[in-house]
Amino acid sequence: MSELFDAVDALVASRSPLPPPGERKRLRAAHGLTIDEVAGALKVRRATVSGWEAGKTEPRPPEREAYARLLDKLAELYPAPDSAAVPVQNAAVPAAFAGTPAPAEAYSLSTGPASEAAVMTAAENTQTNPTPAPTAAPRPARTTRPTSSTSRRPGTKKAAPAGTPATAVDPRFENGPLAVVDIEDGKVVAYCVGGLVLDVPAKSLPSLVDWTLKHAKLGQPKLSGPGRPADPLLVLTEAACERYGLPVALTEEERNTGRIPEGHKVIKQLTRAEWKLTKRGFGPWTRIYRPAKGPDRQCVQLCIPSWNALDPRFWGDAAQLPPAELARVLGAYASRVMTPRGSTAVTGLELMTALHPPTYAVRDEETGVLRQADDKTPGSLGKRPVDCAPCEAPDGHPVLNALDLPRFHVRGPAEKLFEEAYDWARPMTDAECTLRYLVGLDVNMAFAAGANGLNVGLGEPTYVKAPAFDPKLPGSWLVDLSHVDLSKVKVGKEWVELDGSLLPSPFTPKGDRPTGPAWYATPTVAYAQELGYDVAPIEAWVRYENGRYLDGWYQRLRDAYLATMADLGVDGDLSPEDFLAAMDGYKERDPELTIVVSAIKATVKGGLGKLRERPRSEGWRPGERWRALERPTWRPDIRAAVISRTRINLHRKMIKHAAFTGQYPIAILSDCVVYAANGPSPMDFLPYREGKPLPGGFKLGINPGLVKHEGTQSVLWGEEVRERFNAPELNLARSIKDGTVTDVDNGE
């Protein structure tokens, strides 16, 4: 009988009545409890309690009964303001929380997310035509008051974002890397990471900058020995902009120039207070500084979301989040990547420099004063830009002036290095048409994986005539690879025969077989040797000063990605079946951390794209220099090498898969590859044996370089789409995610 009673009690507990989400938050705040304290008492994650209070998810047993008990006791202590009974929310568990898959994301050729390489290319022109900022959603008012500008709320402890590794707190930056400044009940407050809220006494923007440097204790320790700490970041809400005399939104002219006019009253205030702006002026991301005196910098960075500082293409709806939630998102990104320094593309580039500072400090033997060394830090790109080789230069670069090319001349592959990601497709064979499904695989952090362990040039290129190819020497090589025949290649140490007509060439983005000499980066030429063929370069531009410049960058971003995905329930040691299950609906588990994942990925793609940034609204004319060329990190050769290696990595997997299974890809777009299969899951065609994948082939998992399920459609869908658009080689990888095709595939 006792077992029956226990079962009844459990059944009752599973439907314990709860007040509506807003009331849950009011009761917690009325008692001075933080989300972290409630999460600790119930032994759940902070994000879980936040989801309960936002109404995004509902608690399940056994936590539901304990949570209901807590709220009941708090309701007795703090009745609703109108003394009326608060209605109880329906106790039914939402379908999404019960494990029902969320609807597929909308996707189309015209509006779908661009490929990684396309985003990398777009990053060359980041913020040229900024997307209008999304309209901010109303946010709930905070129900507790901050206590002081230097202390935490009573009874609370500062908590790091979920999953952040515990580290010793630098007393200079004990309040975290950043704060979101807002107005509450007429007072200025700053939301920091971990739930900390500070009162801000500053009445003007100059005094806000001064307060930040003297009292806020914001910033971040340096990422490398010769580096410097990150400047504090202030994120200004719309209300804060109004309070400090800034426009809530930019005019069309201001959006085009990326700044407010130099005569704006706030800029005059800063000038009178002897604060300076960088050459970029006062825009969505602004640096306000005074010239450094000694080793200490005086610099504060501003981020203004309503000016489109947080581009929704990469930050989702972060700009619409309430201040505390926005502080959590940006704080998690800052702790795992670095404090944002601008767009994700800018931050990706800044991370490279932060990990390999161009110079280092030395102490003058006579005066004892620290100064910057004359020589560069070993392993860095230095502080002086270097010109690229003519074959590596994009059209309009001034190094091409010396070639005296005819006007409107279009350089071909024998004149221009063209290392880009795949955009290839072919018609299905009769045998493939008898199968039922098309299954897409997506390579995780493909371009980050391509950067890992890659030897790249650190200095100027040297021209060499008829060189012997060295696979360890970074450079660009003019070589004829048209003799490489994919129907017979080496896989490992053995020659295998394949159907070369069903495979893309590894040497061109469109998968076409080369017809003569062309320029290639080192990884591409080395792969031709790996396939068993001799190479004889005609000429080359090589870099004898080289190193694995991107290793630390890759490791930082890899760790950030893996830690955030682990917080979302996707660990690195899951079995293939468990991994596929964990990836199903992971974005709904914690939408705020999902934003962080998106931003980390965009940091990879955008940072690499910035290595070949093009002119941006600078009145530029072909043949003239543009601003980005003055950066040591303007290095199109490094970008080309990463893309080359990424494309080769994917081709190597396809070759090994074809040699073992006889299966060939149907379409490839950047890091997504599509196969025909008899079942809808990757497990229906990947050659796993007792849980172990094909060595060197496709392996399911979350680590960079491993693959995840991108999407599945029917073979009939693929044939119907191609017939409808009269395009036998329509790239189905572009729309495999949800099957939405709205226009003929033009490769854009």
Spell out the key features of this protein.
disordered C terminus; alpha+beta; 748 residues
Topology of this structure?
Blueprint (H helix, E strand, L loop, with lengths): L1 H12 L7 H10 L4 H8 L3 H9 L8 H15 L38 H7 L55 E7 L2 E6 L4 E3 L5 H12 L16 E4 L1 H6 L8 H6 L7 H8 L3 E2 L7 E9 L2 E8 L8 H4 L7 H14 L7 H12 L5 E3 L6 E3 L50 E3 L4 H4 L3 E7 L2 H6 L4 E2 L4 E4 L9 E6 L7 E4 L2 E4 L19 E5 H9 L8 E4 L3 E2 L3 H17 L8 H8 L7 H20 L25 H26 L5 E3 L2 E6 L29 E8 H10 L24
Parallel strand pairs: 1-4, 4-7
Antiparallel strand pairs: 1-2, 2-3, 5-6, 6-7, 8-9, 10-20, 11-21, 11-22, 12-19, 13-18, 14-17, 14-18, 15-16, 20-21
Helix pairs in contact: 3-4, 6-19, 12-19, 13-19, 16-20, 17-19
Describe the model.
The structure is a single chain. With 748 residues, the chain is of the alpha+beta class. The chain has 21 helices and 22 strands. The strands form six sheets. A seven-stranded mixed β-sheet has the order 3-2-1-4-7-6-5. α16 packs parallel to α20 (636-661) and α17 packs antiparallel against α19. It is globular, with a radius of gyration of 28 Å. 43% of the residues are buried.
Q: In order across it, which strands form the biggest sheet?
A: 3-2-1-4-7-6-5
Radius of gyration: 28 Å
Q: How many helix segments?
A: 21
- As an assembly, this protein is single chain
β-strand percent reads 5-15%
| Shape descriptor | globular
Query: Distance between the terminal alpha carbons, to the nearest Å?
Result: 69 Å
Classification by helices and strands: alpha+beta
Helix content: 25-40%
**Secondary structure: number of strands:** 22
Average pLDDT, to the nearest integer? Answer: 86
Give the biggest beta sheet. Answer: 7 strands, mixed
Low-pLDDT parts are 83-119, 125-166, 744-748
